[in-house]
Amino acid sequence: IVKQEYGLDLLYLKHFIDTSCSRQLKNYLLEALPWYRVTYTSMGMEHHTPRWTTVFGKDSTSTPWHGYDKARPRAIPEILLRLMRQVEEVTGETYNFALVNYYATGSDSISYHSDSESFLGKNPCIASISLGGSRGFLMRHINYKNTAQHEKFLLEDGDMVVMRGQTQHQWQHSIPKRKSAEGRINITFRKGVVKYATQNYNQYNVGKGPMYRWESGQ
Predict the structure, then answer these.
(1) 164 is in an annotated binding site
(2) Residue 101 annotated in ligand binding
(3) What is the reported pLDDT for 217?
(4) Which ranges of the chain does DSSP label H, i.e. alpha helix?
(5) Is 103 annotated in some ligand binding site?
(6) Sign of CA dihedral 23, 129, 65, 52
(7) Residue 215 lies in a domain
């Protein structure tokens, strides 16, 4: 499915990953990756990220891996690196970050936002893969108060959404809460072009709190 209207440029690929493979990948990542429940302060207020997060990769500058004062970046694991290369073949883009979110229950969510940070370049192309339970994916135009432009997708196991062009500048997206939901892992591949990208992603996806591991779904 391709959506190109009102500044939206979106590619929606159903079952990009075969169901049997996606289930195995989800279970492996859940237990193999380090997870964080980040707390951070913004504008004098403390915020708690309502989902589990982790991040791998480094921006495209020549800064060495040890040259970051806030948090040293971590290399993308081989299994995610192979998946990233497959995604690059489809999108024609190159990536250097893998952000991974785990929505353990229906209470885990992400509010409306856009990934329009300058450290992602002029028109970022972001690929998002879903593993596990289905969740609603809502999109609205940035002028949502004055326009009826909305989109809604049900992201299922193995689906991939690619947001490109002016999408991040013209649209916002969210994963709202729901009463009950099977656990869902979301992998997003993106490209950071300056050093601040690495610092920002580590601050908001790793933070300074404890690291957790999942074992047998707990």
Answers:
(1) no
(2) yes
(3) 64
(4) 19-32, 78-91, 167-170, 195-205
(5) yes
(6) negative
(7) no
According to the annotation, is 105 in a ligand binding site?
no
SS3 label, residue 88: helix
Q: What are the helix (H) ranges across 33-102?
A: 78-91
Flag whether 184 is marked binding: yes
216, part of any domain:
no
Decide if pLDDT at 166 tops 70.
Answer: yes
The verdict on whether residue 150 carries a ligand-binding annotation is: no
In angstroms, rounded to a whole number, what is the distance separating the alpha carbons of residues 61 and 39?
Answer: 28
Check the annotation: does 173 bind a ligand: yes
The verdict on pTM exceeding 0.90 is yes
Q: How confident is the model at residue 201 (pLDDT cuts 50, 70, 90)?
A: very high
Asked whether the CA dihedral 113, 109, 157, 120 is positive or negative, the reply is: positive
CA distances from 63 to 5, 32, 163 (A): 38, 28, 28
The token pair at 43 is: 């504008």
Question: 201 is in which domain, residue-wise?
Answer: 2-36+44-205
Please report whether residue 58 resides in a domain: yes
Per residue in 56-100, pLDDT (tens digit) is 999 999 999 999 887 889 999 999 999 999 999 999 999 999 999
d(CA 134, CA 46): 30
Q: How many domains does the chain have?
A: 1
Residue 211 maps to a domain: no
Residue 215 has pLDDT above 90, yes or no: no
Tell me the pLDDT of the chain averaged across its residues.
94
CATH number of residue 17's parent domain: 2.60.120.590
